[in-house]
Amino acid sequence: MTLALDESHRADLRSWVESANASTTDFPIQNLPLGCLRVEGGARPGVAIGDRILDLSAARPVLALESRVLDAIDACVAEGALNPLLALGRPALHQLRAAVSDLLRAGTSAGERARSFGDSILVPLSGAELALPIRVGDYTDFYASIDHARNVGSMFRPDNALLPNYKWVPIGYHGRASSVVTSGSSVRRPSGQRRDEATSPPTFGPSVRLDYELEVGAIIADGNALGAPIALAAAEQHVAGLCLVNDWSARDIQAWEYQPLGPFLAKSFATTISPWIVTLDALAPFRVAAVRPSSDPAPLPYLDDEEDRAHGGFDITLEVLLSSRRMRDEGQRPLNVSVGSFATMYWTLAQLVAHHTSNGCNLRPGDLLASGTVSGATKESRGCLLERTWRGTEPLALPTGELRRFLEDGDEVIMRASCERTGQRRIGFGECRGIVSG
After folding, report:
1. Structural contact between residues 288 and 343, judged by C-beta atoms closer than 8 angstroms
2. Strand partners, 322
């Protein structure tokens, strides 16, 4: 686990891109998340800085990088995704971050040279079309929030909310990589089998209990060979960074199909991710201790070490906002539905990676590992409508007078995330958006 802060984290650093110095920006020079800018014929790798995108391909002549990293940037252009860069691993990504920080910093010789290139290497973020940043080979969804597990469990098993394996093993399932889409994509309401009455046969049709799930995704950098587990202490060295994930869920389809094998069509129709990958290096100032109470059973040895206990968490504030079609037509601001924290997760990111590979399963560059719904102990911190409206029995009142138990056609779900700490610059993840279509 690499936690060392360096020159790139200094709170007093300023960029010659003036918008990056605003206190409200998600993308100060201390962040520098990776993404892909869609261009004619494909996509090019970029770095968000204030209200601009540094085009890494255009900036190649002024980037002080090893040839293998420069070659990987070229390969990203050819592939239209960041996978070739990710495959080089965390040390190369650290080198890239340092070079970009120097290039965008005010008062450096590299910065002055880059500034002379001006608009030839910078693209306005406003109006830019952002592509899916990775080619997702595999997608795994976990169930790492104990508050979410307790809430959902208590709805269906009031006397046995938390199953006996939860505190011993990270629960997850293999999702569908082909339906992962980038922020801004519309999400079509899925159809499937559902049974509304226990005494009636099932019917087939559009889901009437469509939901969002607020999650954080980990993007794999260099993976592991088949049959070679990743040790807990090395797990984060295989993670490039984090993004936001909306794992859309059809609750009525899910309730009918999930027994005995778990989620299937209720989850595979769409998963939206935010376009920017916030690197683990950028998140180093915002690490916190894992939350497992001392009264709980200690993890098995392959899921436990002192460093992960002390620094395995991430202090990320997460928000969900909801906007109906009528709200947008009337000029109403989106309703803040929930505010939670990724710091409350029961299982750490490193534990998820170590467990995923413990049987020899191989992870590959660009694989997506999602946390599962992030919920807290309060009603206002619940990360999905199933919990927030308690299966629809406590509907949300929108500013227009509309009620929401689950999502309606035209509803837009907006997810945001940020990190703040005294003595550090605030950094953000951008937005993860999706509109439901019929």
Report:
1. yes
2. 335, 413
Which residues are known catalytic residues? Answer: 148
Do residues 160 and 292 lie in contact, with contact meaning Cβ atoms separated by under 8 Å? no
432 in Cβ contact with 423 (< 8 Å): no
Torsion sign, CA atoms 52, 67, 85, 312: negative
For residue 178, count CB atoms less than 10 angstroms from its CB and return exposed for 0-12, middle for 13-18, buried for 19 or more: exposed
User: Distance (Å, rounded) from C-alpha 73 to C-alpha 131?
Assistant: 16
The backbone region for 283, taken as left when phi is positive above 0, alpha when psi lies in -120 to 50, beta otherwise, is: alpha
Quote the pTM value. 0.96
For residues 48 and 83, the answer to whether their CB atoms sit within 8 Å is no
- Closest by Cα among 216, 234, 380 to 313: 216
φ/ψ (deg, to 5) at 394: -130, 75
Please state whether the peptide bond connecting residue 285 to the residue before it is cis, i.e. omega within 30 degrees of 0: no
Tell me if 218 sits within 8 A of 369, measured CB to CB: yes
Q: Return averaged pLDDT per consecutive 10 residues of the chain, 438 residues in all.
A: 84 97 98 95 95 97 95 97 98 97 94 90 95 98 97 90 95 97 98 92 97 98 98 98 98 94 95 98 98 95 97 98 98 98 98 98 98 97 98 97 98 98 97 96
Residue (of 344, 353, 367) closest to 233 by Cα position: 353
Which residue is listed with tokens 């199909």? 257
329 phi/psi in degrees, rounded to 5: -60, -35
One-letter identity of residue 401:
G
